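User: Hey, my collaborator sent me this sequence without any context and asked if I could get a structure. I don't really work with proteins. Can you help?
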Amino acid sequence: MGFYVILGTAVIVAALILAIVALRWPSDRHTEGSSGKPRPLTAQLRTITGLLAVIAGDAAMVGGAIWGVSETGSDPQWAVPILTSAFTSVVAITTAYFGIRAVSNMAERVSQDAQARINEGTQNVK
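Assistant: No problem. I've predicted the 3D structure and written it out in structure-token form, which is a compact way to encode the shape of the chain:
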């Protein structure tokens, strides 16, 4: 069990280091979004930390499943439900993250398109 505590601590430290590096990293002006503006650093940081949270959650589920199976002595009566629930949890967490990311990206694009149309309309009125 101590191994999983050390592994969890290592993931948290890695996430903190990546967050610090991302905050100090200069904006890349060459990668532009559909609106012609560079992607803000907060969006990049949100993406990185969200992905790290998913990875940490998945690692915790897998670690718990491994620990549970090893404690039961690999008895199929207990190993199958433990592994099934761990697999279901990992799939649910990962699918939820990517689903939320997709909807968030689509909402951002729709908002940018709407703002561009509003700007075009005000320019045509003048």
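In plain terms: The CA atoms of residues 15 and 94 lie 18 Å apart. You can pass these tokens on to your collaborator as they are.
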